UniProtKB/TrEMBL annotation:
GO terms for biological process: phosphorelay signal transduction system; regulation of DNA-templated transcription. The modification 4-aspartylphosphate is found at D54. This is Response regulator containing a CheY-like receiver domain and an HTH DNA-binding domain. It comes from Saccharomonospora xinjiangensis XJ-54. SMART domains: HTH_LUXR, REC. Pfam families: GerE, Response_reg. PANTHER family: TRANSCRIPTIONAL REGULATORY PROTEIN NARL-RELATED, TWO-COMPONENT RESPONSE REGULATOR.
Length: 219
């Protein structure tokens, strides 16, 4: 069971999201909040697997809440659900360590897919956001790609394999099956990759994998 804390300052939006989540018997909303501070308090109390946050909320906003959650509850995945897809919001969300970034205009099934992905240790970006990030990466030319390849060159061959799989959006369990590794070993490799490359989260690692050419164009 994936236990979720849902935070949005609009009660009608919360009701809609709750209805979507209720359609999946593997997901349970354990608490709701109308602001970031209440969401953090609820997460401390209920110890959920995932916290879903709106960006614009009164008091402590979603991005500030995400940053604090990553500090006080590092084992809890954070998904940002918002109407805003500006690059600045995406960049700030990645800096705050979120595991997922979705648009409220997305297909409701995306939210279910995202929650399952982040609960399993993967990252999830709305396809529209992912396409923009990859396009931006490709548009920044060979110098960025060369820099990424140099950074990735610091990794062991096995770590590069894990990074490539991570860049394809696979969860730890999926990476383990693909590379014939235990899930614990995959977690250790992911932690080592983030630490050695100075990356804040899996999403940034996935972007670096694309920059370095570790992920085929069809992903």
């Amino acid at each position: 069971m994936i236990r979720v804390v849902l935070a949005d300052d609009e009660a009608m939006i919360r009701a809609g999201v709750r209805a979507v989540l209720a359609s999946d018997p593997a997901i349970e909303v354990v608490a709701e909040a109308g602001d970031g501070r209440t969401a953090i308090d609820a997460a401390r109390k209920h110890q959920p697997d995932v916290v879903v946050l709106d960006i614009r909320m009164p008091g402590l906003d979603g991005l500030s809440s995400a940053a604090e959650l990553r500090q006080v509850l590092p084992g809890v995945a954070v998904v940002v659900l918002t109407t805003f897809d500006e690059d600045a919001y995406v960049a700030q969300a990645l800096e705050c360590g979120v595991s997922g970034f979705l648009l409220k205009a997305s297909d409701p099934r995306e939210l279910l897919i995202a929650l399952h992905a982040v609960a399993e240790g993967a990252a999830y970006l709305s396809p529209r956001i992912a396409r923009r990030l990859i396009t931006r990466v490709r548009g920044e030319g060979l110098s960025r790609s060369a820099s990424a390849r140099t950074r990735v060159g610091e990794l062991t061959p096995r770590e590069r394999d894990v990074l490539a799989a991570l860049g394809s959006g696979l969860s730890n369990a999926d990476i383990g099956r693909a590379l014939f590794l235990s899930e614990g070993t995959v977690k250790a490799h992911v932690s080592a990759i983030l630490r050695r490359l100075g990356l804040a989260n899996r999403v940034k690692a996935a972007i670096l994998a694309h920059e370095a050419g570790l992920v085929a164009d069809d992903h």
